[in-house]
Amino acid sequence: MHLILEQGDLTTVAVDAIVNAANSSLLGGGGVDGAIHAAAGPRLLEACRELRRTTLPDGLPVGEAVATPGFDLPAAWVIHTVGPNRHAGQTDPELLVSCFGRSLDVAADLRARTVAFPAVGAGVYGWAADDVARAGVAAVRSWDDANPGALDEVRFVLFGPAVLAAFEDALASV
Fold first, then answer.
1. Which superfamily is assigned to 2-172 in CATH?
2. Alpha helices in 72-174 (DSSP H)
3. Collapsing DSSP states into helix, strand and coil, what is residue 119?
4. The one catalytic residue among 9, 33, 58, 145
5. How many CA atoms lie within 13 A of 133 on its CB side?
6. Which of 16, 49, 74, 156 sits between 20 and 30 A of 117, alpha carbons compared?
7. Rounded CA separation 154/161 (Å)
8. Is-contact 155 165, C-beta < 8 A?
9. With contact defined as beta carbons under 8 Å apart, do 18 and 2 qualify?
10. Burial (CB count <10 Å: 0-12, 13-18, 19+), residue 69
C-alpha cells in the first residue's frame, strides 16, 4: 500500500472514498465536514438523515465509521467518522486510532482501493496535529499489516503546512 501525504482540498481528490471528520449527528457542521457536505450536494445530507432515521437514531459513536455515497464529489464514497473531542474530555488517543482503523474497515467492506483522510480531530476538536499524525499513521500502518493487499493507496490530504509537517514527521518516525 502506498501512503501519500499532501496539502490540499479533500473534496477535490479523485479516490474511491474520502473520510469525513464528522460530528455524531452526521448532519453537517464546520471545517472539513461542512466543506464535504457543500461539495457533495444536498443528497449527502438526505443520506445522512436516512442513516439517523434508520440505523443510527442516536448518532454515530466516537471512533466509529459509516459510509454514504459521494454524490457530487469525485469520490464514490464518503466514510464518516467521529473523532474524540478533547474539549469535551475525550482524551484517549485510542479513540483517534479507532477513527482511522474503522474507516479503513468500512473502505474495505466497500471494496474501495484508494482512500483519503483529513487530520481527524485536529480542528475544532482540539487535538494537536502531532498527536493526530502519530495516531493516523500508526493506525494505517497497523491496519495494512493486518490486511495486506486490501488497499492500494491511503492519502492524508491536509489543510495547511504545519499539519502536513506533523504528518511528515510521524511518517519518518515509523
1. Leucine Aminopeptidase, subunit E, domain 1 (3.40.220.10)
2. 93-109, 129-146, 161-172
3. coil
4. 33
5. 22
6. 49
7. 19
8. no
9. no
10. middle
Task: Indicate the average pLDDT of the chain.
Answer: 97
52-95 pLDDT tens trace: 999 999 999 999 999 999 999 999 999 999 999 999 999 999 99
48: its cell numbers = 445522512
E strands of the chain, at which residues? 2-7, 17-22, 65-69, 77-82, 114-117, 153-158
For the chain, give every domain's residue range.
Answer: 2-172
Query: Residue 21 pairs with which residues in a beta bridge?
Result: 81
- Residue-level pLDDT at 40: 98
Phi/psi of residue 89, each to 5°?
Answer: 85, 10
CA distances for 73 relative to 38, 105, 166, angstroms: 10, 21, 27
CA 17 to chain centre: 9
d(CA 57, CA 148): 34
Active site (annotated) includes residue 16: no
Q: Are 41 and 61 in contact (CB under 8 A)?
A: no
Compute CA distances 148 → 2, 75, 96, 140, 141, whole Å.
12, 23, 22, 11, 10
Tell me what pLDDT residue 124 has: 87
